[in-house]
Every structure is written in structure tokens, then in C-alpha cells.
Amino acid sequence: MTTWKKAGILFLIVVMGLMAAACGNKAETTTKTDGKSDTKADKKILAVTHAQFRPFEYMSAQGKPEGFDIDIINAIGKELGWQVEVQDTGFDGALEQVKNGKAQVAIAAITIDKKRQQSYAFSDPYFDAKQLIMVPKGSQIKTIQDIKGKKVAVQLSTTGALLAEKILGKGSKDIFQFEDLPSAMDELYNKRVDVVIGDNVPMMEQMAKVSKPGFVTLDDPTIPKESYGILMQKGNDEMVKQVNDALKKIKENGTYDEIYKKYFSQK
Question: Is residue 109 a contact partner of residue 65, using CB atoms and an 8 Å limit?
């Protein structure tokens, strides 16, 4: 065999070795699309949200999702060594992307309930919330049962919407659903509905922002409190454990409290 042939074969062996090594590295760092947990593969995590629920998630002036929930998932990602990308997909779209494995987690002030737990896995609770009833001063509405026969505005796919459906019936012509809570509240401000049902924190923040006199909120003790959780693919027990461990750590090391104080005045 001539010298130049030997050199050519040696060169090909080296090139093939480098290509094999590159493919191996790529396989270790590519994110899985089935949503299942793999310590190496999950370094790049897609978190989906619905950025219409201030102060939990909303779009910044730069067009990127930000808010309490976004800071929480980023803090969890930092603890786990994940590179977290957050995308705004809409509420129902966020749940669907987790279900089909296109996203690994959804964080959007998602209430943990038995119906959702049939299809998804949840982290431990990271925030406690309550549904409030907003009415004009002097309204005859005093409890959730008093909304019967009234026009009710709610945010689409929220606990408030489910609560209205429970009282008035699913598909009721008296339930008006909106993409975000401020739009629902505008209907009340403009006297097109009689009452709004929504989560306490975003409702109170919007009322403070708009600062229109003549409206009050009611806290009906018959409405149960609820907890928000980070939603993941059902059966992904390893990821649930990782997220819960990281959530516990950021609560213990003060990171959670720092984020909380950034968005809320008191605990």
C-alpha cells in the first residue's frame, strides 16, 4: 500500500471518530420531546404560560413573559441546573403542550384540582389563592349563590369560570368569558354585567391600578380556598420530585421570599 493511501485512510478514521463523538455529545444535551425526565436531557426546559394574569405572568415591554410565576420557575431551574425557556401559549394551549410532550412544565397560576390531577401531575403548592366576587356598591349580591339570574363576567378557563358554571350551568347565556381578568372587570365598570368572579390577587391589583370608586369585593366563606401548582406530564414522577425538591430549597434559602416581596406587599 502506498504512503499516500495510508495517510488517506488514517485521515478518514480520524474524521469518523470526531463525527461519532459529536453525535454522542448531541444526544446527551438534546431535550426530550416526550416530557419524561432525564437529568442530562432536561438541561433545556420549555415552560409554557398564559401571560394575561398580572402579577403572576404578563408580557414585558420587550415582549417577553415575566412575573411572579416566571421568577419562580427560573429559580427552580437555577437550582436544578436547567436552562429554562418560557413561552406564552395561552392557558389551554399550555396544558395541551405539556400533555403532548412539547413542553416539560406549565406555570400559569394553575389551580390544583381533582379533575386536572386525572390528566396531569402537579408539584407541591407554591401559592394559596381565593376567589372574590366583585360588584358595584349597594348590589344585592352578597354571596356566590346570589349570582343566579345575573350577568357574570369571568376569565376564560379559570376557577372563577368553573364556579359560575356550577351555579348557572355550563353554557349559560349569562356567563361572559374573557381572555383576561381586566377585560372581564371592564364589563362591570361599563355596567354591561352585574358581577365579576376572579382570583383575589390579580383582581385587587387591577382595582388598585384602575382606581374607580363605587365597586367592592366580597369574600364568600363558602367558596373554598385553592392552591397553585406547577403542572407536568402525568407519570413523570422523577421530574415532579426534582421540582418539589428545588421548590423546597428556594423556600428554605430565602429565594422564594425575595421573589414574593418583589410582587406582593404582604404574605
Answer: no
